[in-house]
Write the structure tokens for this entry.
Amino acid sequence: MAGLIVKSLKAVSHPAVLPSCRSAILGAALVAAVPWTVPRTPWGDPDLRGTYSNDNEYAMPLERPDEFAGKRASDMTPAELAEIRRNARQKMIAALPGGDVRGPDSWWLENLDLTRRSRPWAVVDPPDGKIPALTPAGAARSAGRVRSSFLGGPFDSPEDFNFLERCITKSVPGAMIPSMYSNNYEIVQAPGLVAIRYELLHEQRLIPLDGRPHIGAKIRQHLGDSRGRFEGNTLVVETTNFKQASAYRNADASTLRVVERFTPRSKDTLEWTARIEDPKTWTEAWTIAQDLTRDRGGLLFYECHENNYGLLNILRGARATDGRQDNR
């Protein structure tokens, strides 16, 4: 840093530099030389307040792709990361499901820049980038049909759609994993309390920091029950008490525990990790990570049910298909 200031002093003393530019050059050098420190709230907590987005992390592979077998994320060269970012959009389009009805390939991607993706894949622990093996109970629980309009029918009732498509919840940690749009989050702080507002589905979490115990084991919530604390500048949030219907990746809600960490890395970047622990579902705990980037705008309203006829029309289409099959 001292070297930067010395170089700047030499630069501003050069006769070719206009006097009007010298103060700007020196000022920029002095700003760059001062290390960034995490600001504090008026009551002394690390100040994480603001709106963040991880739009550009959309479609990041959860696990390490097989083409990178034997490599860790930390082993990736800058050239390999650049190649991953360059091909991210086309790989996303190639992964779209087929079917009788499909919109333009790039329809949902117009406002995203997948070349700015922060990581090659999301799983950072275990180091091999793979989700640990399922336990026998976890495998049995995951054997049922995945319900989603993106994966095809049958569509016989609203229960053939997932909770996101039904405007119910993305739960935890799913609420922080980006969908195709509205991946914006607002962190609000008060003494002894943090709130996180999610644009998508209009959900909100209240996270006490006062050391109170979790609610009773018989009380279950779609977003679970969160308790937080600061470890240095990192906000650590432990969540339990999930509902079985919305437990992440068919985990056992009675034993699922998610530990998130929100760590400021720069003025505009917040690193988010989530450690997923459930001995009844996976043979070991595992961790995912993504970056959140400060967004200067606020959250938009997300009125999921209003004038949204997607679910109804998919069911109508399925009934029309049934009629055609009956008349063959």
Q: What stands out?
A: The two ends are 78 Å apart (CA to CA). The mean pLDDT is 87. DSSP finds five helices and ten strands in the chain. The CA atoms of residues 158 and 311 lie 7 Å apart.
